[in-house]
Amino acid sequence: MDLMNRFVNFFGGSCGKINQDSRSGAIYYVVQKLSDLTENIIPFFDKHPLIGVKVKDFEDFKQVAELMKSNAHLTKEGLEKIREIRLNMNSLRK
Asked: Can you list the domains of the chain with their CATH numbers?
């Protein structure tokens, strides 16, 4: 839990929050505001890149965030593009 609190403190206290799953006890750092993602989280990981298989997922995540930032998710085409990206993320990646 201490590590997660450090995330909150590092990103200024108002960027994200800590949630705990009541069933598994897993702890998550959750960021809900798009502006927090595009102005804080994404630039941090651009400056301090991930290593390994998560690099591709992060690149896809950034692409979705940019689509949302430009309001593309409000169009049928934009939403379909986001769905296509999602279908290739994490364990679904081919």
From this structure: 1-31 (no CATH), 33-94 (3.10.28.10)
